[in-house]
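Help! Submission page says 'invalid entity' but I think these are all valid:
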Amino acid sequence: MECRSSTHYLDQILCHPESLLYCFGLLMHYLSSFHCLFCHGYEERGVASIGVLAIDLMAQVPQITNGYARNALQFSDDVTVYTNGSESVHAAMTSLLSTTAKAIKIDNRPIVRLVKGEKDAEVGIQFEDGSEIMHGFLVHGPRNEMDLDFAMDLNLEKMPSGGELKVSPPFNETTEPGCFAAGDIGSMGKIVIAGLAYGAFSAMGVVKQLQGY
Ligand SMILES: Cc1cc2nc3c(=O)[nH]c(=O)nc-3n(C[C@H](O)[C@H](O)[C@H](O)COP(=O)(O)OP(=O)(O)OC[C@H]3O[C@@H](n4cnc5c(N)ncnc54)[C@H](O)[C@@H]3O)c2cc1C
């Protein structure tokens, strides 16, 4: 019985110099774009404004963006969600954000570029219409991709997102009996403490099977 786990942020982040994701990779480097506001953002609290990028995975799953935008209200009263020219994402975000206690703005202008601001985590968004808006920081969760070359022959079923393996609680057994997937590879909640907890449960599941109880 063998089980390993891993996911990684798309290599493409650093591969396409003209893409938004390339900028995101650079901005991560400069600590300007945060993918989790439970882990990051507190140090920047009180910034004049925050931009939330509803692109890629965050456009595909607007519920994720909804959570991020509401999280961002902890750190600034001025939060804008950018839907990058997508009418459908704009409509979804308008509906999801209609019940916030504090208003969250939604901007549907197509984005052409992100530029690093001069101080702290500041970052600017440049739009197709030539205008630019500077924010204290951006929020964006990138898509994950599994590194499953080692397990291709196991035919493990994936979650609909495609970024995780399908596992069953509480022991995180995959669709292949006897193969467990602990941590990021089997969960959309990618944080260290969750990975530790899943690992502990998987270990128990493995022992149960090996000892036959
Ligand atoms: C930029 C970034 C910032 C983050 N910030 C935070 C944070 O502030 N707080 C927080 O809680 N979480 C944070 N996370 C998430 C956290 O890092 C993950 O949830 C956690 O590392 C998942 O642990 P894991 O063991 O499931 O997977 P991993 O840490 O990805 O470990 C998988 C391991 O498997 C190895 N591996 C892959 N393929 C093979 C193979 N074929 N053979 C052998 N080994 C292999 C990999 O090299 C890797 O070492 C962050 C993640 C990223 C990418």
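Support: the input was valid. A stray whitespace character was the problem, and the output above is from the cleaned input. Residues 148-211 form one domain.
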